[in-house]
Amino acid sequence: MASASKQIISDSSEWTFPLLKRFDQAIARVAHDEFGLDTYANQVEVISSEQMIDAYSSVGLPINYHHWSYGKQFVATEQTYRRGQMGLAYEIVINSDPCIAYLMEENTLPMQALVIAHACYGHNSFFKGNYLFRTWTSADAIIDYLVFARNYIAECEERYGTEQVELLLDSCHALMNYGVDRYRRPSPLSMAEEKRRQAERENYLQSQVNDLWRTLPVIDKEEGRLDERRFPAEPQENLLYFIEKNAPLLEPWQREIVRIVRRVAQYFYPQRQTQVMNEGWATFWHYTLLNRLYDQGMVGDGFMIEVLQSHTNVVYQPPFDSPYYSGINPYALGFAMMRDIRRICEAPTDEDRYWFPDMAGQDWLKTLDFAMRNFKDESFIAQFLSPHLMREFRMFAVSDDDREDTLEITAIHEETGYRQLRQRLADQYNLGSREPNIQVYNVDVRGDRSLTLRHFRYNRRPLGDSLDEMLKHIHRLWGFDVRMEAVDEHGRVQLVGET
Amino acid sequence: MSHFIDRRLNSKNKSTVNRQRFLRRYKTQLKRAASDAVNRRSITDIDGGEQVGIPSKDISEPQFHHGPGGQRDMVHPGNKEFEAGDRVQRPEGGQGQGAGQGRAGRGGSGEDDFVFELSREEFLDLLFDDLELPNLVRNQLVGTTEFKTVRAGYATEGAPSNIDVVRSLRGAIARRTALGAPYRGRIRALEEELATLLASGIAETDAQVVALREEIDRLKTRIAALPFIDTFDLRYQSFTKLPEPTSKAVMLCIMDVSGSMDQVRKNLAKRFFILLYLFLQRNYDKIDVVFIRHHTIAQEVDEQEFFYSRETGGTVVSSALQLAHEVIRDRYDSETWNIYAAQASDGDNWDSDSSICRDLLIQDLLPLIRYYAYVEITPRQHQSLWYAYQDVKAVHRHFAMEEINGAEDIFPVFRELFKRQEA
To answer: For the complex shown, is ipTM > 0.85?
Structure first.
């Protein structure tokens, strides 16, 4: 290799700031110049373990409004960490521009280098490239928006009392997963804009709501036809948005808080859908980048052994009958798939040529980049999971039907099972099948103002026992009765809960 | 280009507010856990934090999720013996293939308690919440001797240790600027003159030029001669003393350590005093505690000896009351101090001594004391002391007595004795 004569950067296991910088430069050179990764600028912050626990408990955001649930998270994390039941993550990385990554001061130099490669070049380029992140998050504005949100909520606490705000936030948090329009693009965030528009919005919204709930309905001669018209005309899946715009009794400041929670939820929306890809991509790149440095003679054997040991732990997939098994490890699956794509491009077998005619023999960098940019977990698996990997993981699909006494193994890693297996696994990552599909169906505008939600059942799966609790939360936001109906595959409607 | 920032010195406790909110929200549950805990604990570790648990279902954050039932398909790794079409028994307990059900529990249906550690302060706060020293009156002397030192701006005189460097140097700069201003103005004028002269072609050696240069040099020397710092510049941080109303309290702890108090009872008494002591430490800045233990004779001892030394012998309670009275008379003027007393005993006493105790209390002690709490640690019948004390109770409202039968009684009795008084 041409550059094999380069010097080893350091053999020490103690890190220093100058050493971190040299590693960062070396990794950046390989990442940008050799592999063409496109990243935001990096802001690397070194923090202590206590600060890491702090960062953990505010859902990984560098700044957030106050809420008891973060305190609970903090207490829990601190507890398990102190008892030694859990190590802290080596890094937290924030999808912002510049991309903020935290390094823990306790880590050794090889670990810091691993984290820099993983977070500052792996995750960072994923944030910048993946279509979901591009669509749903505004990396350049999120920090500003959080500052706005924090100040706004603090102000509300002062004005209306901590308790009031807390109850409202509780209810909003409960609906956090129902705060996204999946089929509409959000408008970009900007702090100045938010502030300017906020007052305007308050007044306007209130007037709209008032109009909707006008006590004296316009007398209509064709009364009968009007009654049949539902509000909303189309079912709405974004419950928080619907509440923000239409809940009759909310004060303007309450609407603004609903909106804040909704926008924060939206920021996390891509992360929930790209776990396998995001972690796989970052893991693939720390592995590839550091190996490259090793090939070029810039890091020594000891360094590489430590990196690989940690890497191996991260990508370990325990089998289903192991006591450590808790589902498929996204790092393991993601990393294996990324590697597999490279393998298919570089050294395809006949099977690969048959399954992936477009990929076999192509430039692996371009193929991988394409995959990273244009997919989410569900479609990524449906598209790129190869028979080779299914065999390697020894995957099998189980069907659990409560009408049967036994479980059925529906497919295993064999010729006849590949397609079904791949489809099943992809479905598993489909948000639509993971989370109950709940929509706003109707509001009794002319009657008792009650809100009717509908749960569209998937594979006859009912709602869990949190339903009553949830209806109470929605009731708090809506202010009038809330009903939940379940709709089965045949369109039969059944009332399952009411406040 | 990456930017490295060292944040390790930033504040650590970013989550303090959130933690406090969490504790406040679950105060009732935590209070119950805290008072349960105090009964379980041994004396030596009462001063630490405490592990408390809250049922997880109380603190769950609900989300919509799927319940058990219906049909679900899961893909798992690590197949060893399955073939397509195999049927297997549903595993118990959600392991293996059942992991799918495990996920549904995320919404908070778990049965385990959410257990975590409270700090010492948090623990004591919960434990002593709603409690107050009874009848706390702010005894305030006209010629009060308590002062608090507060900042009061800057002064031109003071002790060298109080010099405010920034202020002083700022003054020095101002003075130098002000005093040097005429010279600098003059220098500027002369330099302009010099420049016009030189521009008009006059030689360097010309007398006019030489004179100008000398004048400029002279002025520059004058500027340089201005003192860098002068006594005139010095500013001192100034402090003044503000008289402060005080609410000093003294707590007299009286305990029977005679032979009739066996080890178990001593332990119960110790716990009571420890509670009391912690309670005082938390509530009042300035508190003196006097420990008096007695058998046939009374002694004033330090905390260590009070709780941890062993004595035996008969019992003469009045000796302790006598000593308490002396201590108050000698050291704690009831005009300046709020005086409280607590006594723990098993109720044994020389029969003839009980009436002496009664008289001592009614006539000498109680008029000086704000509150007197007596706890009797005995599972047996009351003896003469209890009945004598009942007479005291009838006379003085600020005398309280309770009986402790076992460790589980200590905290309830403690709360009963010290519960917040109606305003």
So the answer is: no
